[in-house]
């Protein structure tokens, strides 16, 4: 395989409703789409990074810079046959995982498509459908939150995740639990707590949560291990797990009992699969996290979540939960809380290039010549 050119596009998309985490409130996302071309074959990927460096140190602009000036120039015109060989072409470039994931996932699509197999099968996926959950932002109004939860339950979504932050945690979880006693429920703090604020987590232990996701700073594996020893509720790590090595450390320290596997955070599907394989071997359940990906990144998540260790419903839901229109055809939809894993070659969806061209606010092409 030899990539002749890499096309980059920044594509803004408005969210159907603003999304509030412990650190930011957003109305529009701006992901970078990556199209790789090798002869007659193409592949699509997505860098689903946030505009501000609040989830990790990367931003849309740093991803653009890395993709245009470092990653794409490192791969165009070079030969490779496996993803391992592709990633070694840019192996000297440190971190910048969301940028790498955009290029790397496009090459997975390219490679599996050129071989005529679905990306899910190519990765070793075993599921025909994945179980889907939703992630709800912090809402000021309880009634609005209850209405959203009731609506998603009616649609069949398998679990609900609530974003929490210090001072916006125990009371809202108690109210939701009272209103929905059987709801499979988890909470995600996005690293908003200090270890000195762990008392709120101890109080959350009473509400039969599936897990508490990433309470403390990403670097602080020891604080997570200390609180996990005290809690009945499993701790799940998200932001902390940026590599296979880091996942090994977290499991060795007992920092979590569940791992959120996220393609962008891990620099692509290869490292994501390695974390999955490690957890599967250790009996640690994983689920697929999301960054409100557009259809292209969402399709890659679907393929990943078809691997056997993804036993917990993840954040991968129908794209209509985030966007009025998708960029792939057919649009990704959940039916009774499950999304079918496509069986067509590569990502298994038709990419709507006309729509992408209309929406793109910046483009660049890196060619071999
Ligand atoms: Mg999270």
How does this structure look, described?
The chain has 369 residues and is of the alpha/beta class. The protein folds into 2 domains: 127 residues, Enolase-like, N-terminal domain (Enolase-like, domain 1); 220 residues, Alpha-Beta Barrel (TIM Barrel), CATH 3.20.20.120. 35% of the residues lie in helices and 21% in strands. It is built from 12 helices and 15 strands. The strands form 4 sheets. A 7-stranded parallel beta sheet has the order 5-6-7-8-9-10-11. It has a 4-stranded antiparallel beta sheet with strand order 3-2-1-15, with helices on both faces. It has a two-stranded antiparallel sheet with strand order 4-13. Strand 2 and strand 3 form a beta hairpin. Helix 1 crosses helix 3. The longest helix has 18 residues. The radius of gyration is 20 Å and the shape is globular. The relative contact order is 0.17. The chain binds magnesium ion (MG). The site of magnesium ion has 7 residues, from loops.
């Amino acid at each position: 395989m030899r990539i002749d050119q890499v096309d980059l596009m920044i594509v803004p998309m408005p969210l159907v409703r603003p999304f509030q985490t412990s650190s930011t409130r957003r109305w529009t996302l701006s992901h970078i789409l990556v199209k790789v071309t090798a002869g007659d074959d193409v592949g699509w990927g997505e860098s689903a990074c946030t505009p501000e460096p609040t989830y990790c140190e990367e931003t849309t602009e740093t991803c653009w810079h890395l993709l245009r000036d470092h990653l794409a120039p490192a791969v165009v015109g070079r030969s490779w046959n496996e993803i391992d060989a592709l990633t070694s072409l840019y192996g000297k470039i440190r971190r910048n995982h969301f940028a790498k994931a955009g290029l790397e996932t496009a090459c997975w699509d390219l490679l599996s498509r050129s071989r005529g197999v679905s990306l899910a099968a190519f990765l070793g996926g075993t599921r025909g459908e994945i179980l889907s959950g939703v992630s709800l932002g912090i809402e000021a109004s309880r009634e609005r939150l209850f209405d959203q939860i009731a609506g998603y339950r009616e649609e069949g979504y398998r679990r609900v995740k609530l974003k929490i932050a210090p001072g916006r945690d125990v009371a809202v979880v108690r109210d939701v639990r009272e209103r929905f006693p059987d709801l499979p429920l988890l909470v995600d703090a996005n690293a908003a707590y200090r270890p000195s604020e762990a008392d709120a987590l101890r109080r959350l232990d009473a509400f039969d949560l599936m897990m508490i996701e990433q309470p403390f700073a990403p670097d602080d594996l020891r604080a997570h291990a200390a609180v996990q020893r005290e809690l009945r509720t499993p701790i799940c790590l998200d932001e902390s797990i940026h590599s296979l090595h880091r996942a090994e450390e977290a499991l060795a320290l007992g920092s979590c009992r569940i791992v959120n596997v996220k393609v962008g955070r891990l620099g692509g599907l290869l490292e994501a699969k390695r974390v999955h394989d490690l957890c599967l071997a250790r009996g640690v359940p994983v689920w697929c996290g999301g960054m409100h990906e557009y259809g292209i990144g969402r399709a890659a998540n679907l393929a990943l979540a078809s691997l056997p260790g993804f036993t917990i419903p993840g954040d991968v839901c129908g794209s209509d939960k985030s966007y009025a229109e998708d960029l792939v055809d057919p649009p990704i939809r959940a039916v009774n809380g499950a999304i079918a894993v496509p069986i067509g070659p590569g990502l298994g969806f038709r990419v709507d290039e006309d729509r992408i061209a209309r929406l793109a606010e910046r483009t660049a092409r890196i060619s071999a010549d």
